[in-house]
Amino acid sequence: MGNHSLKATFCKLKHQDRQGSYLSPYDDDAKEAIKKFSDGELVVIDIKKTRNPKFHRLAFAMMRHLYDMVDESMPFENWRKLMLIKAGYFTSVGKVDIKGTVSQALIPDSIAYEKMDEIEFQECMNNFIQQFIDKYGRQITYEQLAEAAAAL
User: Fold this and answer.
1) What is the pLDDT of residue 1?
2) How many Cβ atoms sit within 10 Å of the Cβ of residue 117?
3) CA 57 to CA 145: how far, in whole Å?
4) Which parts of the chain have pLDDT scores under 70?
5) Contact between 116 and 45 (Cβ < 8 Å)
6) How many CB atoms are located within 10 Å of the residue 52 CB?
7) Number of other residues whose CB lies within 10 A of the CB of residue 56
8) Where does the chain have alpha helices with state H?
9) What DSSP letter does each residue of 73-116 carry, written as one string?
10) CB-count burial class (<10 Å; 0-12, 13-18, 19+) for 128
11) How many other CB atoms are there within 10 angstroms of residue 86's CB atom?
């Protein structure tokens, strides 16, 4: 098979008839992926714990709710990306022109489901919320915060 890279989701299961656990293909894509390997072939797996998709959806709902609480002129997606940059989740891209002038652009990192593990995602969301508090904290009333918390 060579040195190919595949992504597949597996589920840890307990052996029923003996001690220990094993990884089992979680879905049809994973079952198809392992068919490409011969019996006894060694496979190196980069193990990551997947995030809970429910928390991912809640995080986007929370960001949208926070956006709706403040008076911003920019569209939600632009605001969300700016807040991610302020929270420290970005890639810096530099450019040097013919005169030697250096310019830099910040591109927000993706928080797509498969891009971060649960710990990284929690840290990102905590930093996002802290940036929101730092920027808008004095503009929001306790009642608005209580309403936002109840909505989640």
Assistant:
1) 45
2) 13
3) 20
4) 1-6, 48-52, 113-114, 148-152
5) no
6) 12
7) 18
8) 28-34, 53-69, 76-86, 118-136, 142-151
9) SS-HHHHHHHHHHHTT-EEEEEEE-TT--EEEEEEEPP--TTTS
10) buried
11) 18
